[in-house]
Task: structure prediction
Amino acid sequence: MNAPPEDQLEQLKNLLFSEEIEKFETISEEFNDYERLEKKLEPILEKRIAELQADFPDQFGPVITKALKVQIKESQEEVIEVLSPIMGRLIKKYVQTEIAKLTESIDQRMRDLFSFKATLRRWIASLRGVSSAEIIVSELIPAKLQEVMVIENDSGLLIGRHSVSADSDPDLIAGMLTAIKAFVEDAYGKTGESLEQIEYETFTLYLQSFGSFYIVAAVSGVVDSAFKDELNDAVHAFAIELTRDKGYHKDETKMMSLMEQHFSLFSPLALPPASEDAVVKETASAR
Amino acid sequence: MQKKILLVGDFGVGKSSLVERYVNDRFSEEYKSTIGVVIQKKTVEVDGQSINLLIWDVAGSREIAEVPASYYLGSSGILYVFDISRPETWAGLPQRLATVREKAKYSSESDRLMVIANKSDLCNAEDLKEVLGQVSVKVDIVTSAKDSLNVDSAFTELARRILTE
Ligand SMILES: Nc1nc2c(ncn2[C@@H]2O[C@H](COP(=O)(O)OP(=O)(O)OP(=O)(O)O)[C@@H](O)[C@H]2O)c(=O)[nH]1
Ligand SMILES: [Mg+2]
Result:
């Protein structure tokens, strides 16, 4: 009798596909032998990875950027939280510079004015030694003396202070200012020049040395030349008094009252009350 | 009475950590290198006298000559800090200390310049002994800002020396 049909089929398969079966067996052996497979695949994978690295920005860049955009859009609150302290400072500084620019442009416009009133105002302004624009702007954001400090030159120790607000630690500020001053003068001051002005956010600090001590005046707002002159005079008058009597350095109350005397009434330009029509309105309508 | 004191020494030896431990009784493993100088203050009582210490924590530098000379002006005392675990921070110490003395205009006898070996927690007693033998200058106090060892004593001792000189 012949073999059962399944065996016959098997024989036939072997006859017909012997070559393929052999090939299949080698392949499957290769496939199951991890080391051999790894050897075969390694070059291919390496090439693919290299390609991927090279093309990554092109292929995935747009997708990732899009994903990031969505992410940022959906978490605006968080982004604002992170950025706002930085932006705040930038904006303040920006506004300050813009105001300075505005001052110039108003000046220009004032020069172009021919109305009698404007001429009159220009005269008043020039009599007081300030520009018309400075008058207008100083009405908007008046300069204000915030603080005066007397600091020992070498050690940075605070000798005296007069302040409108008492929120920060003056000892530390005095020290830091002295360090900054020392650093700047060390780096640039070989010529005997000294640091005279520091701008910080919307503050301007004026530094003046008088022998063993220096005086710092912190001013907020837009400082015009008249304010600066007046401040300069006050600081000098105070410094002269201070050098005259060494007792001030030792007696805190005496020092405080001297500072009070010189700086408490210190006020910027006492401008006359605005007349019938405000100066700003006048410039605006005179275009 | 107010007095200015300075902490100087190599990068990362723990100057800011000593000040932070002393002033705020805090310690952080995180290393935030100081830029320029940071000033803190603390009042210390010595023999019934109270002194307001203005502490200048100066940015570390390998070359002590890099510290601006004017930082030293008007200082009443200096803590020179090194890190026991890093030999490069105490190599050539005698020369470095001489430079500090010269810049600060302290006489060679003055003891207002104190040498501090910090990070004692990082080594055992034997290692410490070996290091102290190798530094070739007298170490005034061994501290650990981390374990709060001798930190107060270091500042108080300096204040005491300032008062007595
Ligand atoms: N284990 C240990 N680590 C300390 C100690 N003091 C400081 N450190 C660590 O050392 C690193 C540097 O400390 P800082 O205090 O920033 O060093 P510094 O001397 O002020 O460094 P610069 O400002 O760069 O000069 C930080 O990671 C601290 O946590 C200490 O006593 N023990
Ligand atoms: Mg530091």
Q: What stands out?
A: Residues 19 and 133 of chain B are 27 Å apart (CA to CA). The first strand of chain B starts at residue 2 and ends at 9. Residues B 11-17, 28-31, 33-34, 59-60, 118-119, 121-122, 144-146 surround guanosine-5'-triphosphate (ligand 1) (CB under 6 Å). The interface with chain A takes residues 2, 4, 36-37, 39-41, 52, 54, 56, 68-71, 73-76 of chain B (CB under 8 Å).
